[in-house]
Amino acid sequence: MAAKTTLNAKNLETLGAQRLAELLIEISTGSAAHKRRLRMELAGDQGSAEVAREIRKRLASIARARTVIEWHKVKKINADLETQRSAIVTVVAADDPKEAFDLIWQFLTVADSIFHRSNSNDIAFTETFHQACADAGVIARSAGIGIDVLADKVFTALQDNDHGQYDPLIAEMVPVLGKDGLERLKGLLVQWLNEEEEESADADRKILDWGGGGTTYLDEIYARHRQQRARIALQDIADAQDDVDAFIAQQPEETLRAPMVATAISDRLLLAGRAEEALRILDGVDHRFETPFEWQEARAETLEALGRGEEAQAYRWQCFEQSLNGEHLRAFLRKLADFDDIEAEEKAFAFAHGFPDVHRALAFFLAWPAPAEAAKLISRRQAELDGNLYELMTSGAEMLQEKHPLAATILLRSMIGFALDYGRSSRYRHAARHLAECASLAPHIDDFGSARPHDAYVAELKRQHGNKHGFWSLLR
């Protein structure tokens, strides 16, 4: 009997078409999304032209909407967008690619409305429109869209890329645009980049800000924004044409010494077999900026490319010692011969145990992961633990509780101690939960070592903080 009531297609077929239709009407009542889906299915039975009409109507409705998209509505609205996109790609494009191309372009223009109305920076919308960029490239090829028309449309879109919705558009259109199309698009972008702003009297210019550096006008901000978008698009074209010099030429002089810009340039120079230039770019960065892992590893890889492998390894180890970033250690170990990596890992662990910042050392062991080493560190340096770092302490306790219950207990106690010692009443509820977790871990600890057994620990808490009734009341 149970098998016949299981919800699956075979069992539902036994209800018959009429009963299923009645159920669908009942289920869709009050649900606009379900009704739209049913209308789309009905339109599909009448051909792709009717589906296209439904999609066009729905996209126009989405573009006209003005209501704010709260965070809890993101999933629902994105599902609606995905329904429209999927229908364009799977139904309309198969029958009428030119109509599908017009629809996917209309779909992309809806992004402005969506992002303007959304008060959450939800990545789901961005992913949906980036996928639509990829769809547009595929459909454009099957529709036989002329390269001049396509280049013009891409250029117009990139001018309005305020939310990054068109970021992958050039890369997706490269196979369709080809050499001539890319050159046309490049010409349009260069013209836009060098476009002269209309001059107007200061009295007519809108002022955005006053400051020590002088007056900032709105038209200046617009001009810089336009130039930045044009440069980014020209960099994408340079990548498509494997032209590293053109990529570098689009970097403003003042950004060349920024570590991430230098890293991007060096990556391309390295691929072009120009390792010496890559190293000069990397070594020319302004070290007032924090040098990220990507820059440091790019420098090591460049040294490798120049045949300076020992220097590259020494640099990786130096970076690891300075930061305890496990990625540096992994990169170092990958270059070692078999079995040498085991000895090097042990050396790294010993170094981490003596690192001045115990919390960075703990984060390293947890991320590696090396839970046994983390437990040793906690036991040896428990007096240095800062219970205010609750994210680190909580994640550590969760990782260690099964096989290293004493270490987990010490981390939990650090958070309890911080909350009570500093009277952080907002954390009392968490501290009470941590104390309950300590109680559940206690039976699994054979030897508390220098730490107090659980009952003695609770007794000492009551002696020191017995007057913090807000905390103790949570334990009853």
Question: Overview of this structure, please?
Answer:
The chain is mostly helical and 476 residues long. Among the domains are: 251-354, Alpha Horseshoe (Serine Threonine Protein Phosphatase 5, Tetratricopeptide repeat), CATH 1.25.40; 374-475, no CATH class. The protein is 69% helix and 2% strand. It has helices at 9-13, 17-28, 32-44, 48-64, 74-95, 97-109, 111-117, 123-143, 147-158, 169-193, 218-240, 244-249, 259-271, 275-283, 293-305, 309-323, 326-334, 340-353, 358-367, 371-380, 390-400, 405-421, 428-441, 454-465, 469-472, and strands at residues 207-211, 214-217. A two-stranded antiparallel sheet has the order 1-2. A hairpin with a 2-residue loop joins β1 and β2. α3 (32-44) packs parallel to α5, α6 (97-109) runs antiparallel to α8 (123-143) and α10 (169-193) packs across α11. It holds the Pfam family DUF6880. InterPro entries: DUF6880.
